[in-house]
Amino acid sequence: MSVFICACGRYVDTDLKAFGAVDGGMACLSCVEVYGCHNEEGNDMPNPIMKYFEFAHLPDHLQKVSRPFGELASQLNEDLPDGPEKSTGLRKLLEAKDCMVRAALG
Protein backbone atom coordinates (compact mmCIF):
# COMPACT_ATOMS: atom_id res chain seq x y z
CA MET A 1 0.00 0.00 0.00
CA SER A 2 1.28 3.44 -0.93
CA VAL A 3 -0.10 6.54 0.76
CA PHE A 4 0.52 10.23 0.24
CA ILE A 5 -0.96 13.38 1.74
CA CYS A 6 -2.67 15.69 -0.70
CA ALA A 7 -2.10 19.42 -0.24
CA CYS A 8 -5.63 19.63 1.19
CA GLY A 9 -4.54 17.34 4.04
CA ARG A 10 -6.35 14.18 2.93
CA TYR A 11 -4.53 10.87 3.18
CA VAL A 12 -4.83 9.11 -0.16
CA ASP A 13 -4.25 5.38 -0.64
CA THR A 14 -2.85 5.10 -4.15
CA ASP A 15 -3.68 1.38 -4.25
CA LEU A 16 -7.36 2.32 -4.19
CA LYS A 17 -6.85 4.66 -7.16
CA ALA A 18 -8.51 7.47 -5.19
CA PHE A 19 -6.05 9.93 -6.64
CA GLY A 20 -5.49 11.76 -9.87
CA ALA A 21 -2.57 13.10 -11.82
CA VAL A 22 -2.33 16.59 -13.21
CA ASP A 23 0.81 18.02 -14.80
CA GLY A 24 2.78 15.02 -13.59
CA GLY A 25 1.81 15.47 -9.91
CA MET A 26 -0.74 13.71 -7.73
CA ALA A 27 -3.73 15.02 -5.82
CA CYS A 28 -6.86 13.52 -4.31
CA LEU A 29 -9.75 13.30 -6.75
CA SER A 30 -11.67 16.05 -4.97
CA CYS A 31 -8.82 18.48 -5.53
CA VAL A 32 -8.23 17.37 -9.11
CA GLU A 33 -11.91 17.88 -9.92
CA VAL A 34 -12.18 21.24 -8.17
CA TYR A 35 -8.82 22.81 -8.87
CA GLY A 36 -7.19 20.79 -11.63
CA CYS A 37 -3.96 21.22 -9.69
CA HIS A 38 -1.31 18.87 -8.46
CA ASN A 39 0.35 18.00 -5.19
CA GLU A 40 4.03 18.68 -5.49
CA GLU A 41 6.32 20.74 -3.31
CA GLY A 42 5.76 24.35 -4.24
CA ASN A 43 2.35 23.62 -5.74
CA ASP A 44 0.00 26.45 -6.52
CA MET A 45 -3.16 24.72 -5.32
CA PRO A 46 -5.22 27.03 -3.11
CA ASN A 47 -6.12 25.73 0.32
CA PRO A 48 -9.90 25.11 0.11
CA ILE A 49 -10.61 26.40 3.63
CA MET A 50 -9.15 29.84 2.92
CA LYS A 51 -12.30 30.99 1.10
CA TYR A 52 -14.11 30.96 4.45
CA PHE A 53 -11.70 33.54 5.90
CA GLU A 54 -12.67 36.20 3.35
CA PHE A 55 -14.13 39.29 4.98
CA ALA A 56 -14.41 42.06 2.35
CA HIS A 57 -18.08 41.23 1.71
CA LEU A 58 -19.04 41.76 5.36
CA PRO A 59 -20.42 44.97 6.86
CA ASP A 60 -17.79 47.15 8.57
CA HIS A 61 -18.68 46.08 12.13
CA LEU A 62 -18.24 42.39 11.20
CA GLN A 63 -15.10 43.03 9.16
CA LYS A 64 -13.55 44.44 12.33
CA VAL A 65 -14.11 41.06 14.01
CA SER A 66 -13.32 38.81 11.04
CA ARG A 67 -10.26 40.59 9.60
CA PRO A 68 -7.72 39.52 12.28
CA PHE A 69 -8.70 35.88 11.80
CA GLY A 70 -8.42 36.17 8.01
CA GLU A 71 -5.02 37.83 8.21
CA LEU A 72 -3.70 35.25 10.69
CA ALA A 73 -5.05 32.39 8.58
CA SER A 74 -3.37 33.78 5.46
CA GLN A 75 -0.04 34.16 7.25
CA LEU A 76 -0.16 30.65 8.71
CA ASN A 77 -1.25 29.15 5.39
CA GLU A 78 1.77 30.74 3.69
CA ASP A 79 4.31 29.96 6.42
CA LEU A 80 3.46 26.38 7.39
CA PRO A 81 3.87 23.22 5.33
CA ASP A 82 0.69 21.51 4.14
CA GLY A 83 -0.46 18.56 6.19
CA PRO A 84 -3.12 17.30 8.57
CA GLU A 85 -2.03 19.44 11.53
CA LYS A 86 -2.15 22.63 9.46
CA SER A 87 -5.59 21.67 8.11
CA THR A 88 -6.86 21.00 11.63
CA GLY A 89 -5.40 24.24 12.97
CA LEU A 90 -6.99 26.30 10.20
CA ARG A 91 -10.32 24.53 10.70
CA LYS A 92 -10.27 25.33 14.42
CA LEU A 93 -9.30 28.94 13.69
CA LEU A 94 -12.30 29.12 11.35
CA GLU A 95 -14.54 27.77 14.11
CA ALA A 96 -13.24 30.47 16.47
CA LYS A 97 -13.79 33.17 13.84
CA ASP A 98 -17.35 31.98 13.25
CA CYS A 99 -18.08 32.10 16.99
CA MET A 100 -16.76 35.66 17.28
CA VAL A 101 -18.76 36.85 14.27
CA ARG A 102 -21.89 35.31 15.77
CA ALA A 103 -21.09 37.02 19.09
CA ALA A 104 -20.83 40.35 17.26
CA LEU A 105 -24.22 39.73 15.69
CA GLY A 106 -25.62 39.55 19.22
Please describe what this structure looks like:
The model is unreliable at about 35-45 (pLDDT under 50). The chain is built from three helices and four strands, in the order E-E-E-E-H-H-H. With about 110 residues, the chain is an alpha+beta fold. A two-stranded antiparallel sheet has the order 1-2. Strands 3-4 form a two-stranded antiparallel ribbon. It is elongated. It has helices at about 30-35, 60-80, 85-105, and strands spanning about 5, 10-15, 20, 25-30. The longest helix is centred in the last third of the chain and has 22 residues, at about 85-105. About 45% of the residues lie in helices and about 15% in strands. A hairpin with a 5-residue loop joins strand 1 (about 5) and strand 2 (about 10-15). Helix 2 (about 60-80) packs antiparallel against helix 3.
